[in-house]
Amino acid sequence: MTSKELSYGIVRAVAVIAAILLLLLFLYKVATVIVYCIVSVVFSLLLYPLVLFLRRKLKFRNTLAVVVSLLLVIFFISGIVLLFVPLIISQGENLSLLDINSLENNYNRLLNDVTIYLGSHNIDLQQIAKSSNLTSFSNFEFIPNFLNNIVSTIGNIGMGFASVLFISFFILKERSSFSIAFKNVLPVNQKEKVLNSVEKINEMLSKYFLGLLLQLFIILVLYFIVFLIFGVENALIIALLCAVFNIVPYVGPIIATFVAGILIMISSIGTGADFSTETLPTTIYVLIGMFIVQLIDNNVSSPLIFSKSTNSHPLEIFLVILIAGILFGITGMIIAVPFYTSLKVIGKEFLPENRIIKALTKNL
Q1: Residue 27 belongs to what H/E stretch?
Q2: How confident is the model at residue 207 (pLDDT cuts 50, 70, 90)?
Q3: Where are the domains of the chain?
Q4: Which of 266, 272, 251 shows the shortest CA–CA distance to 332?
Q5: Residue 99: left (phi > 0), alpha (psi -120 to 50), or beta?
Q6: What residues contact residue 83 under an 8 Å CB cut-off, 6+ apart?
Q7: pLDDT tens digits, residue range 344-353?
Q8: Of 194, 208, 211, 209, which Cα lies nearest the Cα of 345?
Q9: Could you give the CA distance from residue 158 to residue 146 in angstroms, rounded to a whole number?
Q10: For labeling, which of 77, 206, 266, 341 is most exposed (least CB within 10 Å)?
């Protein structure tokens, strides 16, 4: 190899590495847009049966069918919001969420009750807070930041929802054109495998997301029943909040349990209930009930709901979610199962003879 060829090879390698780094940087910068596109594709897959129904049964033109389908979704979500907003406002008033000063007073009273109770058992809460750098939670400094984060999150969700609807409209409207263009760019010798993979992924992800909605509804009902049994104020709104947390596998139920305990204790402030003989025992009983609900979900409802959609062993799913959480945080845990399921479908289609792929996809 001559020096010229060596120099050319080095320059080419550096250029390739630079191009890859620039591509990764670009993908990182537009990660939000990529997420919107992925969500739009999934949303379109779930909505497409309704579009087909309007086109075939009611003889709607394609564009009209898409518009009506999206409007029905908007009306449905708006109805849910309008149904819960009055309840949330009234429950929020009961929880003093609309009165920061009142909430701070209740929070401080709760901390004082907890401190007295633990002090009677020779546990110094203030010393534990200082040694654990948790002093900000004792003076309510975290509330303004928490509220700002909520407002920011609501704004991002609103923008994301609008973006998903806009992208989904064109995906559904131009579905045939996208499908033809997609088929045209596929290599001839791989076209059948790719199309089979897409069809199988479409089927499995549709089942998965519908199953997820059913799972959250079951958890909502069970939590609501537990809260009603123990006479918890604001039962429905707390149950709804805890059910939403369950979207995050494994970590979500822990957060839901912590939030429910805090809200239940705060809501008892001002009712005249004694902390050590009424509030604390009720909270413990409720948390035990929530733990039982999680046992039911983990051992009965979730396996039954997701067994046909993912066709994966529970230990396999646990490891996948754990690895995704370590690498990509909460977002990784949420998308781990559908992404892993898609990879299994692709692996079985393109590498059916590989021993590892064959072992992982034997139930697909």
Answers
A1: helix 3-29
A2: confident
A3: 10-99+151-185, 187-364
A4: 251
A5: beta
A6: none
A7: 888 888 877 7
A8: 194
A9: 18
A10: 77
